[in-house]
Task: structure prediction
Amino acid sequence: MSDTIQIKKDTLWKGATFVLALVVVGLLIFGGNGAPTTGNVVANPGAGAGTAPVDLSVFIDNPTLYPSIGPEDAENIVIEFSDFQCPFCAMAAGLASWTEGYKTQYGDLIESATKIQDLAKEGKLRFIYVPMSFLGEESVWAAEAAYCAHDQGKFWEMHDAIFTAHDSTENQGQYSKDKLKVIAQGLDLDMAKFNKCLDNSDHASDVSTAGAQASAAASGTPTFYVNGQKLSGSWTQLSTALGL
Result:
């Protein structure tokens, strides 16, 4: 497994050695703004750097494009910017079995997003998911699949199934459309409708729109906002911001 992950890291940061050094070594504890940045993967460097206020209303007010769980009138709102293929996003979900092996290195990241999701299920906050889909074609297909499930009221079930199926690689076929159809089985979906939606790329424009809007708020994944405060996937950071 360690060899697989090493190859994965080489793929993620190919051509970005300086960013890798900053994130994994220099910024593991403190980021450029003095906040923990455990495991951020850079996308569209320079965008959404947090130097100017970000209007998050576009993500809060559009549950069709940005599905949420938890009370709409919740006092606390958490927004996650994520890519389904991103290995650090998979670690934040903590649903794939291989993430268990990284608790020593990335313990504060593992399951942080799932902990937020569980709090939302308990009615303690509202959790919004924003797909960035910047790591390649399979990121786009995975997001499309989640939206196709969303058409049938099963976004979060598909969200969890996709991250559970994450194998620590990217663009190696794990999220091909055929495999996404297999992943969707067992979610009580009308599979004929789901398959047609995915095959026809019915939500391609939604994925594109979400990615474009997200780039104004986040330059890496996973990135979280807690009540407007930009944070990493560190559970210590997230729980502190929530007053837990």
In short: Residues 144 and 205 are 9 Å apart (CA to CA).
